[in-house]
Each structure stands twice: as structure tokens, then as C-alpha cells.
Write a structure and sequence with these properties.
2 copies of one chain form a homodimer. The first copy, chain A, is built from 10 helices and 13 strands. Chain A has helices at residues 58-72, 88-93, 109-118, 120-123, 138-144, 169-178, 198-209, 246-253, 264-267, 273-279, and strands at residues 3-10, 13-19, 21-27, 32-38, 42-47, 50-54, 78-83, 101-106, 131-135, 149-155, 179-188, 214-221, 229-236. In chain A, the strands form 3 sheets. Chain A has a 7-stranded mixed beta sheet, with helices on both faces. The radius of gyration of chain A is 18 Å and the shape is globular. The A-B interface holds A 4, 6, 10-18, 38-41, 57, 59-60, 193, 219-223, 227-229, 257-264, 266-267, 270-274, 276-277, 283 and B 4, 6, 10-18, 38-41, 57, 59-60, 193, 219-223, 227-229, 257-264, 266-267, 270-274, 276-277, 283.
Chain lengths: 283, 283
Amino acid sequence: MSYWHIDYQSKYQALTFEVTEVLKSIQSPYQKIEVVETPAYGKVLLLDGDLMLTEKDEFAYHEMLVHPTMFTHSHPQKILIIGGGDCGTLTRVLQHKMVEKVVLVELDEMVTQVSQEYFPQLVSSAQDPRVELIFTDGIKYVHNCTDKYDVILVDSTDPIGPAEGLFRLPFFQDCYHILEEDGILCLQSESPWIPELAELISQVNLDLKSLFPLVKAYVAAIQTYQAGLWLFQLASKKYNPLSNDIESKIKEADLKTKYYNSKLHYGAFILPTFVNEILNEPL
Amino acid sequence: MSYWHIDYQSKYQALTFEVTEVLKSIQSPYQKIEVVETPAYGKVLLLDGDLMLTEKDEFAYHEMLVHPTMFTHSHPQKILIIGGGDCGTLTRVLQHKMVEKVVLVELDEMVTQVSQEYFPQLVSSAQDPRVELIFTDGIKYVHNCTDKYDVILVDSTDPIGPAEGLFRLPFFQDCYHILEEDGILCLQSESPWIPELAELISQVNLDLKSLFPLVKAYVAAIQTYQAGLWLFQLASKKYNPLSNDIESKIKEADLKTKYYNSKLHYGAFILPTFVNEILNEPL
């Protein structure tokens, strides 16, 4: 028997979609994890009822979280992923041949277990010998970490509950310290279309700028995320994501992508005026 | 008493939002016209239940339908708008000082009457002495027209019912004939995220290319439209929308905008890979 799931974008607006079958529904120590079958998006992963991942369009989010940073860095060998238990981000990181080691720190092991069953095309990447999965709190991991990384990617849930600290200065400071001297931090940072999120986005920009010499935001159109437009914030110690030589590197790598490409690498950083205004950046 | 309105994006997915008050509900000869008050988007215009226009984000759609073409043309003096009875497109066209004459052809006069009452900030532009409103079928108007235009903007509803012909070759042929020899046609052409629309978008691209030497698609993020990503198709007899000199023209004009800007003029034409694939265009 089918029903319509409601995924709230704010108190006043929601995406709703038909669910034809509940494939899994389980309570972890942290959240309710569900996988549902939908005609619009294929299989969908829900955490506490919030849409996290869909089979048909996960590529847009994961490619855009991963590839802009990975191509900006000249030798991304040691990578830290915070969150991302579904392994969609991990899968794209491993497309980059230079990668020698990826540590993925996910709070909720059951997210990965459930994803392994329903999104094996993503979680199979966890079998790669370069990968280490650690199931613990990402904020604590980064705070206590003594290793150094070339790239940190923050693939978090919304900034409420356990993920809230991933959008705050102390976490960014810890990330800064465990990044190599030419390291890059990139985080997903929610939808600029939702007025309630504007202050958070603006504050993240200020906090990152207080630490990193080069901070730039970019966008991607992600149909199933809040209001369809998603922001990412990239903070770099050395490399400029708009450097001219990146286009040829992307073409050479010839990755299989469905969203990202060598021109879009630059195009994504060109923001609508209202997004620049939220960031307090000049046009 | 509030309720949640459901705006279908396809058979299987919808945007839903709280409505706190129905301000107007009236049946025209063509469709049901409603204006509702919403906490998420301010006032919203619905036609047969489909979201057409919201007070808080109409700027994204209207700026992006109008400004890329208007700045691409070197002297956009005579403009034809097909549809657009809410006058949001008209308002942006009149921001361009070179404009001498705008003819707006809307099928349903009651759309304009209702908009005048609830969106006066848009419909006030209809009082401009350069404007002529004609309430008739746009397809017939263009077919029988003996005037010539510099720019035609197609601000249509979805390609079902009366608007279907606005996405078809005979209409494009008629547009071609009434455009000056350096004229430009630009149409809104729906969401590339919706699989059911891919064939239409691809066919429009082929049809326009059979007539015009220069056809280019561009996108905008429009949160309240289907799946949040919107395509526009621009067909030009002479001017290239990616010409270098446009950036300085945009900066000089210094229009008040909330979405469009001089960098985004170029950025909007950089498409995600899956959109290029729908259009059968190389990257």
C-alpha cells in the first residue's frame, strides 16, 4: 500500500513524494533509519524522516561535494570524510587515482550497515584497501586527531542535533590544525533559499575566513534537497579553486560524472546575487 | 483556517506548502485562478492549482527569462512577450532603457486583472506608455502578426493544454518570421530534473536549431518550480549570448537585481553534465 512521505524544508514548506514500499525501518541509538522505494527517485534513505539520499540523484550532491576540492588540491592523497556513512562521498573520492588513504568517520554505524544492503553500488567502495571506517563522533575525532590530512570533506546532516557542531568555529579550528599546510576543507552548508538558514551560512563564511586565506562558496542544483539549491563552502590554505590549470586536469582525469564537469568546476562558483548577499560577498 | 497546498511536479512528487488564507478564487473561461497567502513564499498565484508565481521568489524566474536576452541584443527596442499576464516579465523588460515598445499577448485577461489586485508591484508596469496589452491566443497572434520584433520572450505555463503549441516547431517558425534579422527568441522550457520532460526539451533544442544559427540553453535555480532547476532556451539570429562585451554592458546598466548579475550571465550557460546530455550537446 503506497503513501506520500513529507520531507519538511522548513516549518512551512515540504517536498512530498509517493512511497510504494518501505524496504527497511529500524531505530539506531541515534536516529530512525528507513529505506523506501519511490517511483520518482528510486530507493530513498531517510534519517528521522529527513531525505538523505536518493538512488536517482545522489550523484548531484556527492559529485559536487567531492570533485571541486579534489581537483583543486594538487596531490590529494590523505582524505578525511566526516559523516557520509552511506559511502556516496567515499565512492567519488576513490575515483581520484592519487588517493592513498581515506578515513571515513561516521557517528552511526547502522547507517552504513543499512546502506550496504540497499545501496551496495555506493558502499562497495568501503572494501577498497585504502579505506578505513571509524564509527565515532566526527567532532571528537577531529579534536583528538594527531594525523594530518590533505583534504577534509564534511558530509553532514542538517545543523540540528549531533551535526550542529560541524557548522561551528571550534570544529573548523580543529580541522585547520589537522590539515597539511596546503590542505583544503569543504563542507555542505545547506540551502540559501531558506531564510532561516541565512544566518548560519553567513556565520560559517566569517568563521572560515578567520582561519583560512581562501574561502569560496559554490552551488549545485539538487532536486531532492531543501528548495533545490545547495551551497558548499570551501576553505583552502593555499590552492585557489578558480586557478586556470584545473580545467585541463579535470579533462585529463576523464572521470565518469553526471553533474560535474570541467566547465562547471568554475561555473558553480558564480553565485546568484541573493546568495552573494547572504555571504556578504561582493559580486 | 490554514491548509497545505500540493503542487505536483510529476505524478509521483510534489511541493507542498502551508496556505494561511485564500485571498481570491475565481474561475476564468480558461482556468481556475487563485491567490493564496503563505508563510513560506508570501502571496502565491495558482492557475488550476499549479504554482505560477510567488511574491518572495518571482525575481529568480523573471530576471532569468528577461535579462540574458535583453543584454545579448545590442538594441532591444521592440519586444513581444507571449504569456506573462502577471506582468513580472514585463516589469523586467521595462528596466531596459532602450525599450521603445512592448506588446504583451496573454490568453486570459482575468490573470492580469487578479494580478493587478494582488501583485500591484508587477502589474503597475502595464501603465507604462510603451506597453500594449493584447488579450488573445499567443500562437494565433504570432501566426498572423505583420509587425517585426527585436526580441520575443515566451513566458508560458506548462506544456499541456493551451500552452502546448508554444513548445512546437510551427510556433517557432512564426516567431522566426516576425523577428528582425538580428532578433532573439527566448523561452522558458521547464525542468531538466523531470524525466518526463526530457524529450520535450531535447525536441525544442532540435527545432530551434533547424531555424536559428545560434541556440543555447541556460539554467536558473527557482525554488518553487518543479524540482528547483529551470531551463531556458535562447535562439538567436546574430548575437552570441556569450560574447565578451556583454559583461561591461550589464555593469554599466546597473539594474537592481536579486538573482542575475554580470558574471552569472555567463555562468548560467554552463550546464550540469546530465542537462547537456538531455540536449544532446557536447560538454
